[in-house]
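Example is below:
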Amino acid sequence: MSPRRPSRGATRRPRPGQRLKFECWLDRWLDRAVDIAVLTALAVGLAALLLTLLR
């Protein structure tokens, strides 16, 4: 085994168990916002397709 070297990156990433409560809340909120945006875009696209085909 080779000895463990320190990371060289500019940003330090916390271990998965060390996430802050605010970050977890923000991640859940952003996931929900993306879900709503995708569903809205699909509904608008489907409506536009139906209007185009029915004309």
Remarks:
- The first helix runs from residue 21 to 54.
